[in-house]
User: What shape does this take?
Amino acid sequence: MASVNCKVAISLFKRTLCLGPAQKPGGQRSLLTVSRLQERGLKEGRTVHKCFTPQNLAVCKLHSVTLPRQDSMSDSLQTCYKYLNQTSRSFAAVIQALDGELRHAVCIFYLVLRALDTVEDDMTISLETKIPMLHNFHTYLYRADWRFTESKEKDRQVLEDFPTISLEFRNLAEVYQKVIADICHKMGVGMAEFLEKKVESLLDWDKYCHYVAGLVGIGLSRLFSASELEDAIVGEDTRLSNSMGLFLQKTNIIRDYLEDQLDGREFWPREVWSKYGKKLSDLAKPENIVPAVQCLNELVTNALQHVPDVLLYLSRLRNQSVFNFCAIPQVMAISTLAACYNNQQVFKGVVKIRKGQAVTLMMDATNMQSVRAIMYQYVNEIYQKIPLTDPSSGRTQNIVSTVQKLSLSSGPLVSRHSFSPIYLSCAMLLAALSWQYLSTVQASEEVHTGQ
Assistant: This one.
């Protein structure tokens, strides 16, 4: 048996894009929801408008996004979008809100990694079979007849009908094919490495998060640049793209301590937790709550080290649909870290972002000024909670100070609530729809946890 089930998050797809309550392993975690009107617009080929605030927040404009007509797509591409909706729930709408041909490239990228992840997650596949499959999976993209019909996972249709996905992969422009195949190859190798390897050191933690999340960030960035919707530097600066993924992945690993313990999985690095207990599971014992919280705070501090890279990455984005795609999960992550920091609840249950808070973040994170304001707000919340006796308090204060300075570096922060009446009406609609979606997710989570 594998000592670590890689539990691949597929950073901007699966575990690393979370809203509100955690879900059980394997469940889809969506970025945001889209109205039924927008879904109908997709099916009927209508032009759907989304509202966003420009950089100066002075004027609100309606940005037209023409979603693809199903009758204008090939049967195989329509099938791919069907699988996208089946396996990613409402996150499919976010992919379909991307501009131009980037939409199809990210759709196929998602499905390829979903198929790879399904192989990794299937514990009924022996290691003798699984490891070669993971190593060679990128080659199956060029084999028109390759499929796998022995999976027991719920998303097995992406393996059983892989020929449809690989066909649309080969229909993409070569520049997109190269990116997807390269990331698929690297991720498959990384998955295989951690099938029988535990996360021991902080270097291991970074490496694991790179394989399951950083690579996705790198791949997406390269697709953004290949589409020419973003400058070449976005795809070339792999350090920043990797940090985008690591920040999301570490946040979810930190938050999901108890869930992973209940499922027999361990992702917190031994190098850190061994300073606070003999076994990672010991941190959940009431008598160990003080060292447990100190361990938690040290890991939160480590994750915060990626925020400066996140701010720089987002500041380079020029396309509105790409900015929204990238910024929303990052502000969700910082709010989650702020909720987790110095919080005993991490070891007792689920730390949840309030639904109203999540909706507000989705409405606000549409421009760089607001993102800087959000980052400043939540690192300040962390600063207010730093215990003077905490072993990592000095390091926490230093990184918080750095983020605060970066958030203010482009001038005074603009109020996140200085929106025009047009923007507010659009935001209220989004809020209502998002509230409905988050209520559904929370209800599902409560059924899972028996609450």
